[in-house]
Amino acid sequence: MIYADNAATTKLDKEAFEAMKPWLLDEFGNASQPYSFARNPKKALAESREIIASCIGAKPEEVFFTAGGTESDNWVIKGSAFSDSDHLATITSSFEHHAVLHSCEAIERLGYPVVYLAPGYNGIVSPETLEGCITPNTRLVSIMYANNEIGSIQPIKELCAVAHRNGALFHTDAVQAVGHVCIDVDDLGVDFLSASGHKFNGPKGIGFLYCRTGVELQPYMDGGAQEKRHRAGTENIAAIVGMAVALKRNCDSIEENKSHILSLEKQLLGALSATGVPFKRNGGEETLPGLISLSFSGYSGEAILHRLDLAGICISTGSACDSVNTEISHVLRAIRLDSGYAKGTVRISLGKNNTAEDVERIVAALARVVGKQSH
Ligand code: PLP
Q1: Residue of 75, 175, 208 to test ligand 1 pocket, by largest number of atoms within 8 Å of CB
Q2: Rounded to whole angstroms, how far apart are CA atoms 205 and 66?
Q3: With contact defined as beta carbons under 8 Å apart, do 197 and 68 qualify?
């Protein structure tokens, strides 16, 4: 099996797995308890927070553990709205992940206004577009760091500066980027940042939210006093430790991984071009390493995905919202991709574990499948 769907999830790092084991077996104590058996879990929690903070240039007290990217996004969008009796506006983009979009729709239903910015054809939300919509009545701007379907990297530093100049806070959903490109929250200037363990070779069901010191953050979950009374619930020490180890390992070899993945990406695009199959790559000039959105005009993305599955290759389709509904995805609609191309879109996302042989097989299968399919 060739796994080329790393934007959906990644394989758990072996060292992260080994680091998790003791917290599941012998060291199972509840970190909130006062006795000495809780000392080690408590220490592991603090050390993991420090490791994660250092990977994104944050302070440990600015990192809040969550159950993943979805929860982090919900927390910021809803928490920010619910703390605001003036019902100021939230600005986001129309091609965010549904964790942000559906949270925005939820606050809209409760009477909080939301403005959806359109990205350009290149998959970029420009600072000028934001400048044209932001007003003194904007509370929060939320723009993703990199799009999960087409990989386009957003000008976060510039967008954040526009938000701050206009008195608004700035959140970025960096779920696809953390652990894959260098991120420094101080350099970016963001107030909130969402991340998810399973996207950078950590375990599933764990993530974190960065919240800048001094910025108000409403508690998300009511209950115990965990996470400075902001996110109640007994901490999942094993998952937190695994996430910290995985992130540190990815960040320590970020350049090495990037150059390996970029060379595979170059190989894939070169070999595919050499087959003579016409295709279009989506996502503009600067995309996440290895995230390749390809459109084959007149073909069906679903059919390509299933044929590749039969050949033992996992990729994703960028054209369907779900397996039943064959509508064009909201991302491809947002970049106004011609519907002929949009329907024939697939996402190949290469990771650090992929090899040149994987790429050869993917290209051979693609050429075979796209060559055979009826229009
Ligand atoms: N945001 C983006 C950009 C994503 O790609 C994903 C997952 O695909 C999420 C949020 C949700 O993250 P999680 O699976 O950790 O809930």
Answers
A1: 175
A2: 8
A3: yes
CA–CA separation, 221 and 233 (whole Å): 8
Mapped onto helix, strand or coil, the DSSP state of residue 146 is strand
Of 300, 105, 76, nearest in space to 194 by CA: 76
**Residue 290: left if φ>0, alpha if ψ -120 to 50, beta else—which one?**
left
How far does the centroid of ligand 1 lie from the alpha carbon of residue 96, in Å? 10
* Backbone φ, ψ for residue 141 (5° rounding): -115, 130
Q: Give the pLDDT confidence of 295-354 residue by residue, as tens digits.
A: 999 999 999 999 999 999 999 986 544 555 567 999 999 999 999 999 999 999 999 999
Q: Rounded to an integer, what distance in angstroms lies between the CA atom of residue 295 and that of residue 349? A: 14
List residues near ligand 1 (CB under 6 A): 68-70, 73, 97, 99, 144, 148, 173, 175-176, 196, 207
Structure confidence at residue 325 (pLDDT): 55
Q: CA 289, 154, 161 angle in degrees (round to 5)?
A: 140
197 C-alpha to ligand 1 centroid (Å): 10
Ligand 1 atom 12, closest CA: 69
Q: For residue range 237-285, what is the model confidence (pLDDT) as tens digits? A: 999 999 999 999 999 999 999 999 999 999 999 999 999 999 999 999 9
Q: pLDDT tens-digit profile of 16-31?
A: 999 999 999 999 999 9
Task: For residues 33 and 368, give the distance between their C-alpha atoms in angstroms, rounded to a whole number.
Answer: 60
Question: Which parts of the chain fold into alpha helices (H)?
Answer: 14-24, 39-56, 69-82, 98-109, 127-133, 156-165, 185-188, 226-229, 237-252, 254-275, 301-310, 330-334, 339-343, 356-372
Secondary structure element (H or E) that encloses residue 93, with its range: strand 89-93
In the predicted model, what is the mean pLDDT of the chain?
A: 95
Residue 83, class by beta-carbon neighbours within 10 Å (0-12 exposed, 13-18 middle, 19+ buried)?
A: exposed
